[in-house]
Structure formats: C-alpha cells, structure tokens
Amino acid sequence: MKQYLDLVKDILKNGESRDDRTNTGTISKFGTQTRYDLREGFPLLTTKKVFFKAVVHEILWFIKGDTNIKYLVDNDVKIWNEWPYEIFKKSQDYHGETLEEFVLKIKTDDQFAQKYGELGPVYGKQWRDFNGKDQLKDLINDLKVNPYSRRHIISAWNPAEVDKMALPPCHSLFQFYVSKDGFLDLQLYQRSGDVFLGVPFNIASYSLLLMLVALECGLKPRYFVHTIGDAHIYSNHIEQLNLQLTREPKHLPTLEINFENKTIFDIKYSDIVLKDYDPHPLIKGAVAV
After folding, report:
1. Known catalytic residue: 217?
2. What is the pTM of this model?
3. What is the mean pLDDT of the chain?
4. Start and end of every Thymidylate synthase/dCMP hydroxymethylase domain (predicted)?
5. Residue 207 in domain
C-alpha cells in the first residue's frame, strides 16, 4: 500500500498546521486522491495491523440501515462507542459511568441501548432511507438495468438531517462506474479524513463494499478511488505515522466471499474470509472526539 504511505508523506511535507474542533491540532491538506487496484489484492494496510472484523461488521451495519451501536457492541466492535457516550454524559441519567461501564449497559440492557445507543440518522439511515428513498436498493437496480449511467451515486450527507446526527458523515458521497469490459469502480468523496486511524479503515470498508456490489451485479471489482477533502494528521499521531513510514509494505491479502444463493442484503460476517494477511504489528493512537 505504497499509495497510503505516499499520502502520509505528502501531508507531512505540504500540509498546514491547523486548529480543529477537538482541540488536538492537525497537519492538514485539502484535496487528495489515491487509487487502489483490487486486482492486485485487497487493500488492507500492512504497515500496521487493521482490525478487519470491525470493517466487516460496520459495512454490514450500514447495509442493514442500522444506526444503533448495539449491533456493533454485541460483536465487540468499539469504533463508534465514544460519540453516543459523549451524548450520554450530558443527560440526566449520567452518574459518572466510565466509557467501559456505558458500553456494558448497552450490551446488557436493551432499554438503555435503545435510548442511548442511537446515533441519529447516520450512514445506514441515509443509505436505506434518504427522505423515503432506499438509495442502496435503487442503485443496485440501476447498475443492473442501466450500467453506463453517470448517476450511480449514494449520498450520506443529508442537509435536512445533519444536525440530528451524533457525527456528520465523513465519507459523504460515493459513485460507481461500470466499464465496457465488465469492471466496476467506486469513487468515495470523504469530506474529512483522519489519516492515521480513519483512512486505512475507510479504504478497506469501501473496497469491501465495491466487492459486494460487484458480486451482486455480476461485475468484476477493479478500482477504489479515494478522494478526501480535508485530509489531516492529528498532532498526537505524527510519531506513529513516522514509525509506519519506516516499515516496508507487505503483500496484500485476499478476500473470499461466500455469495452462493445470496444477495448483498443476506451477507453475514461468516461469509467474508480474509486470507494471507500478515501485517506489521499494531500501532495504537487516541481517537479525537
């Protein structure tokens, strides 16, 4: 994944120092683009270990149209926990619970989870119910009946509902493209990208979505094109990224997906198997909320 390392180098060299909403501070560059060819392997970062289980569960969560973290918590996926916890801390029911205690209550108390596990109308809601329109179903149908259309677009950015979301969508719009020789490409526009923690995850997530939609439509996955508006490195991640830059990328893994007698809406975690993933060790970093 030399493309990712080149992105990091570009931001460190050409980005500007900026304050941000989290008061952490960033080095930021506006308007970046990288391209990943899935025919060369599945683009899961090898210069540090990426938690692929979370990638799969999150994309299945989006596809279901779910917006409550309980499904993720029940499957030991922690990537969304901080945002509803911050909302809970402002409620009258908060009595000093730690994040870990909050997550345990989500897991064991359905009524609590229903009330405090909700993120608002985030990605899954918009994919499956954007002002009453099921964008994902309509897009898949359009890919099948009118593959060369220039309108194969899904938007998670709904201006009428952004202020109701725990976190406005970072990966805000994506578009599919069908080539004349049967390949399917996907371009994501991401308004904001946390290059150390978020971007490796986003690359894998939308590459998996590309593979699933290609299987659904009888096409061959090819390019994932990643366009980022504000591509930023948090000040407390610079050391970690400099360590990654010393590591040599390894061979990319592959994915096996059991799609027999299934649709994209039937796929389960057990149907997706990561093969030959041999990354460098995990590098930890704090999430800026």
Report:
1. no
2. 0.93
3. 95
4. 2-289
5. yes
